[in-house]
Design goal:
The complex is a heterodimer of chains A (114) and B (115). Helix content of chain A is 0%, strand content 54%. Chain A is an all-beta fold. Classes of the chains: A mainly beta (114), B mainly beta (115). At the A-B interface, strand 6, strand 10 and strand 11 of A face strand 4, strand 5 and strand 9 of B.
Chain lengths: 114, 115
């Protein structure tokens, strides 16, 4: 079974600074997709960014970008120019294309300070 | 503009009671799933469905039943509630290609407490 590990339970960043959240995964599959989801205090799950395993280019969405290291099975999220609204739980997730299942990591709580 | 609707938002049950958590989507999505979220454990997949009449087990299916008689609805049944099932439950949907190509649309969650 696939596992997703987020080794940072909590992170803190000052407003306007850059922070990187770590995620590693374990799989023997070749067909998979990786995601970062944001969960603010409202509890709503919001997709931040998505990466196809077959693509070498790192995904970017405005201030959010990933560092996808396929051989190392690493998928980190970089948030640039952090804003107060970025404060939330961030979950890394793995989707198996063959099993049609989404597996989440345990999450990283991000605090943004003034 | 409803998206994924979960009811109820909060529920308190006694051990041994049964209940059904409702999930409905109005986007004609074929893929629907149920997760539970516990502190420090992230979201774990309970059951999922790739279309009407088709369901399959996820990571933690024990104690839960699902059915998918229509595309719109995907109810989750607790057969005999146990304190270990105290959690926040999320329903999610995406189109027939599953979460790979489309973001999953999540409901707002149901907070369930079993006494």
């Amino acid at each position: 079974a696939q596992t997703v590990t987020q080794s940072q339970p909590e992170m803190s960043v000052q407003e306007a600074e850059t922070v990187t959240l770590s995620c590693t995964y374990d799989t023997s599959e070749s067909d998979y997709y990786l995601f970062w989801y944001k969960q603010p205090p409202s509890r709503q799950m919001i997709l931040v960014i998505r990466q196809e395993a077959y693509k070498q280019q790192n995904a970017t969405e405005n201030r959010f970008s990933v560092n996808f290291q396929k051989a190392a099975k690493s998928f980190s999220l970089k948030i640039s120019d952090s804003q107060l609204g970025d404060a939330a739980m961030y979950f890394c997730a793995y989707y198996s294309g063959t099993a049609s299942k989404l597996t989440f990591g345990t999450g990283t709580r991000l605090q943004v300070t003034l | 503009n409803a998206g994924v609707t979960q009811t109820p938002k909060f529920q308190v049950l006694k051990t041994g009671q049964s209940m059904t958590l409702q999930c409905a989507q109005d986007m004609n999505h074929e893929y629907m799933s149920w997760y539970r979220q516990d502190p420090g454990m992230g979201l774990r997949l309970i059951h999922y469905s790739v279309g009407a009449g088709i369901t399959d087990q996820g990571e933690v299916p024990n104690g839960y039943n699902v059915s998918r008689s229509t595309t719109e609805d995907f109810p989750l049944r607790l057969l005999s509630a146990a304190p270990s099932q105290t959690s926040v439950y999320f329903c999610a949907s995406s189109d027939r290609r599953g979460p790979r190509n489309q973001p999953q649309h999540f409901g707002d969650g149901t907070r369930l407490s079993i006494l």
